[in-house]
Amino acid sequence: MHTTQSETQLHGLRLLPGANIRRLMARLDMTLQDVVGATGLDERTLRSMLQGSTRPHARTLHKLAHGLGVATDELFQDPFGNGQAAFDRATNPLVADVIDSHPEMFDDWHSTDYEELFSRMGVGGELTEEGTLSAAIAMNARRELQYQVSVILETGEADLLREFVGMLFRRVTEVG
């Protein structure tokens, strides 16, 4: 039987959550029973996800990510593609010190947020403490703005926001 490229890609998508669950279990030092307890998911569901034999619903993925304290996107990352992140951490060691000394600035951050911060470079090389704090403040401000926009988009003011954003976009992208 011939397997099409889309079937192969679909199978790969089924395997990603399982590989990432195993990666997260190792990182968080969790057993399968720990994951069941933290997420409230059925053990059979988790076993199926680990084996890649099921395509989990979005609700299930959200519940899993929430229980593990990660962004849902982290369940679909290439579990073997962390070489760049390790390089970024090794070349920006001061960032970890800033995170440790200012934990209040990093509430509700996910691994993707930390990866973005570690990947930033200052003028001439690694970030300084001031540069790290400035980048974290800017990232938190952007996250808050995105949250506010998402709330407004669920209200009767959504059309007004769309018009305003469209006007601003045209203003900053006009040539000449």
TrEMBL record:
CDD domains named among the record's database cross-references: HTH_XRE
Domain HTH cro/C1-type: 21-75
Gene3D superfamilies attached to this UniProt entry: lambda repressor-like DNA-binding domains
An annotated Gene Ontology molecular function: DNA binding
SMART domains named in the record: HTH_XRE
One Pfam family from the record: HTH_31
Name by which UniProt lists this protein: HTH cro/C1-type domain-containing protein
Native source organism of the sequence: Bythopirellula goksoeyrii
Lineage, top ranks: Bacteria, Pseudomonadati, Planctomycetota, Planctomycetia, Pirellulales
